[in-house]
Design goal:
The protein has a domain of 48 residues. The longest helix has 4 residues. The protein contains 2 helices and no strands. 7% of the residues lie in helices and 0% in strands.
């Protein structure tokens, strides 16, 4: 049975997509996040999922495109109620260092 077979990627010299093109081997899924990154920018052949890291500089779309609670963690229920988009206050390099403009806040 071929099921469970493991491929040794150590001798591969081409890019992931040279084989993982949907014909030779399974390619990027239709639900994959939109990005200009190469596969190994986020994945490794030893640990494909979960991803090792995400280079947000090359991700196309809004934070909510991925951080929707399905693909990646979304806004927690304890988050301050706001209509702002994520990057109005947060940056991808230091998520907990928040910038908040208090000038538009009024007391209830």
């Amino acid at each position: 049975s071929w099921a469970g077979a493991v491929f040794d990627h150590s001798a591969v010299t081409g890019s992931c997509s040279s084989c993982h093109n949907g014909t030779t081997a399974t390619g990027k899924s239709a639900t994959h996040i939109s990005t200009t990154n190469t596969c190994n920018d986020c994945h490794s052949t030893a640990t494909w999922a979960p991803v090792l890291r995400v280079d947000h500089a090359s991700v196309i779309g809004t934070c909510q495109s991925c951080h929707n609670g399905s693909i990646a963690l979304g806004k927690p229920p304890t988050h301050l109620p706001t209509g702002n988009v994520c990057d109005d206050c947060h940056v991808t390099t230091s998520w907990t260092s928040v910038r908040f403009d208090h000038s538009g806040v009024t007391s209830p």
